[in-house]
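I hope you will forgive my troubling you with a question about protein structure. The record follows directly beneath this note:
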Amino acid sequence: MALPPPPLVEVHPVANAQNEWVALLLRGAAGSLAVDAAALRALFATPELLAAVAPLDCIVLLDAVAVLTPAILDLLPPNRVLLAVRASALAAEGAPRRLAELQLAGYRILVDGVAPGVAPPPALRGVARDCAEGIPAPLSLSPLSGPHLARGVDSLAGFQACANAGFHWFEGDYPLARPHRDDKRGDDGSTRKRLLTLLALLARDADQRELEHQLKQDPALSYHLLKLVNSAAFSGGTEIASFGQAISRLGRRQLQRWLQLLLYARTDPDGPPNLLLPLAALRGATLEALCQRDGGDRDAQDLAFMAGVFSLLDCLFDMPMADIVADLALPPEVEAALLRRAGRLGRRLQLAASGRPDPAALVGGAVHPADWWQAQLHAWHWAIEVARNV
C-alpha cells in the first residue's frame, strides 16, 4: 500500500519554565487548527517523525474524539503522543468516557479550551489554553496535576502570567520578544562582539593563532566551545582541553557554523538556556537542507545556513536588522534575505520563520511539499541535538 503524501502541518516547539524544549505541538496548516485523521495517518504511518524528534513528545490538537479510531490509535504510541482535545468535543455522546478510558490506557489527555456547559470528567487532569484569548487567574490551575499547556504565548509578560496561573509548558512567539534592558544581567555584549570578530577572522581565513587569541579573551565563549567539542555529539573518547585541539577537532567550516550559533548561547553558564538558540539552529538547518536538495554546493549551503541563523540577531541584540547587517559585510543574497526577504533564499527564510507551510508559500519558495517535510525532519532533529549539547 502506498504511503500517504506528507502532510502540511504546523510544527511548533513547546518549552518548560526552564527554557528547555519538551515537546512539539502539531496542528493543521489551514482552516481548522486541528489535525484530522488523514494528517494523523500521514504523520505517524512511519516511525520517521517520532525518531527524528526523539526524545521530545508530540502533542496533537484534535477537534473531536471520533477521530481516535482503533486504526489511528495503533499509530500513536501513548508514551510519545499527547492528545489535546477541544473542550467542545466533550459534548458528544460518550466522549468524556472515551477520553477517560484512553487516559487509563496510558495516553496523556489535555482538554483544550473551555466550553460553556461542558465539564471535563474528573479523571482528566491536564488542560491546554489558547492564551491569546485570555490567561487564567493566578494559581487557578493548581488543583489539577497537569501537564498544562499554554498556547499562543506571545510576550514575556504573557509567559510570566501563564506561569503564575500554573501552566507547565509554553508555546508561542515569546522567545522572539525583545528583552527588557534590565533583564540582561549586566551583559555588556563583549562576548557577542568577540564572536562577530571571530566570524570576520574566519571569513578571511585568518591564522589559527589569531582565532585562539580571541577565544582566550572570553571565558564564557571558551566554556561553551570546549563543552561543545567534548559533548556526546563530537567526542571521540579523548577530552579536548585546548583551543587548538578544539579548532582541529571541529574543522574550520564547522567552527564557523558553531560560532554563528554560539551567538545565542547563554552568557551565564549557570543560567537558563536561550530559546533563540534552537530556533536559530532550526532555521539554519531548514534552509541548508532545502539548498542541498536543490543540488547547491557547500558554499551555497553555508550561505543558506548563515541566513537562517542570523535571521534572529535583531531579537538577540534588540536592534534593527539593518544596523546589524551593516557591520557584517554579508554576501548580497544573504543581506537581501535578511533585510527584505528577497530572492529565493529570502522567500524560504520567510517560510521557515513563519512555520506555516501553506501551498502558496511553498510555491513562492520553489519548495515541493515532500522536500519541505524532509527538510523539517532533518532540521528538528539537528536543532534538538544542538539544544541538548550547547
Observations:
- The chain has three domains: 9-177, 190-262, 276-389.
- Confidence is low (pLDDT under 50) at residues 180-186.
